[in-house]
Amino acid sequence: MQQALVLVRPLLRVAQPGTRPRIQHLRSRFVPKRSFLTSPSLAAVYRRPVGKIQVVTIDDKIQQSFKLDEKIETRFVREKKDNKLCEPIDLYELLRQIDRTDNHVLQLSKPGESEAIVQVVQRKDLIKRLNNKETAERQVKQAQKEKKPKQIELNWAISGNDLQLKMKQLEEFLRKGKKVELLLAPKRHQRKATPEEADALLKALREKLQEVGAAETAPMDGAILRQATMTVKIP
């Protein structure tokens, strides 16, 4: 019986030594064609925005800061005019009486009353009140910030150069009238200081305080070679 010899043609050509197999014709069957722009400068135009930018106008601030017009909760109000209270009037009647292009009905009394005390004010007056309010809030925050002590961190095993920088920073804060908190603590993964080094550091700090005329406002809180806090200030 004669045997039939069947030759199966491989899908991929055998690569010659030193060459790469040619499979580009197979890859193109499975990778879809890109129909969009690939230029970086043009593709950037089609990116979706990450978030919306919210613009707050002066009128938005006015509406958020004051109880005005239809936002007044009581149906009847008493208008304050010339430091006197008028007879109760329907809120919507009062709104019809004023020029609303530049005027508002402002609630003066706190919420919860049966008849709110109101005043007719111009928009420019509301802007002035808002500016005064924001200025007062900034002044309070600034005062709180100034009262908060400045903090300087020191390692018990601090080097001589770093100590000089910390001393200079300490002197600058103290001469500006600031209260300073010196936070002394060992640093992780660094050399631990010896008791002699810790004593020398405290001595150097106290000599600097004496030099600039400052003093500790309270005894040192904490323990040597562990965490400790010194609060100092020029009297």
From TrEMBL:
Pfam families: IF3_C. Residues 150-220 form the Translation initiation factor 3 C-terminal domain. The keyword Cell division does not apply. Residues 126-153 form a coiled coil. It comes from the Eukaryota. This is Translation initiation factor 3 C-terminal domain-containing protein. InterPro entries: T_IF-3_C_sf (IPR036788), Translation_initiation_fac_3 (IPR001288), Translation_initiation_fac_3_C (IPR019815). Keywords: Coiled coil, Initiation factor, Protein biosynthesis. Belongs to the IF-3 family.
